[in-house]
Hints:
Elements: E1 2-6, H1 10-21, H2 30-44, E2 50-59, H3 66-86, E3 91-100, E4 108-117, E5 134-139, H4 159-166, H5 170-174, H6 202-207, H7 214-224, E6 228-233, E7 249-253, H8 261-270, H9 274-280, E8 285-291, H10 296-307, E9 313-319, E10 325-330, E11 333-336
Amino acid sequence: MNHSDGAGSKPVQNYLNWKETGDINAFRGIAQDTLAMNIGDSFCVGVPVSGSFVDYVAINPFNVPKGEVLRILSEDWSELFDTLKRYKIEIKFAGGETADLPDQMRTLDVSGAIHTRYRLDSVITGEEIIPKDKIIGLASGGQASYEKKPAGAIMCNGITVGRHKLMKREFGKKYPEILNPGNEYTGPFSPTDEVEGIEGTIGEEITRPTRIFAPVFKGVVEQFGKDIHGIVLNTGGGHTKCRRMGKGICYVKDNLPEEPQIFKLIQNYGDVPWREMYEDFNMGIGAELYVKSSVNSDVLNFVVKKFNIEAPIIGKCMKTSGPNKVKLKTSHGDFNF
């Protein structure tokens, strides 16, 4: 399996944080974002028998301190691969490419690609999902047992909306290299502002790195085997992404926890309809496990105790006719997709 993804527009917020604070460590987390967005989807398919990762960094060296940023990326990737090895996840770093593109790139873009191999009889396709299966949601935020710092609830999807709706208009004028004409910054905040309900500054919250769920996915598959019928990383498509799996299934999510504060801020200051929020963002549930109903409590307890990740049962699978469906029951209304 080959998979390619990147940190999206999050590095632009990292850049803004750096410009406003002068702290080069504002660029930390980009390496984890890039790896998480690749290895997460790869491990949704099952546990690979081998894997390799390459990176691609496109940078404007006149705006971004190239040497220091590359050093940070290298250090962070090295530390991440060492952490994964402790969970017997061997992903070889196969190098990459750095491109100086001042005439094409205003700040920087970081992406990567992963190649993995699986035993065919171990692949999780989602076709095994059946009515009565339970849906266990894995929190996107908080600090897992294998993380040195808390992960970001927002992960890497919806960052463009989030930063434009939360950061002040003045930053588009102050730093024209981050301005997208026609998509102005309209928010009330500076990166260094502290906001009630958020630990640290709002700039830090937006750029907290995406959780690498690979140790969790590997652990539950090895522990519960064929009782794990499907795994989804709630990236593109948010809570509707699950529709891509199985046949004749209505995914009923009627026990969703309260969303983290960052999503409330985006919805409020961006005037984004709640339906759209659940379609675009993970809303605090970074991944979902679809498990045989008889083992749902065992899987939940395993994740919480071993990895210190909140893992509530957020719903169930039901039979439906025609295309797959999603029904959400939230404190902001019921939404059908």
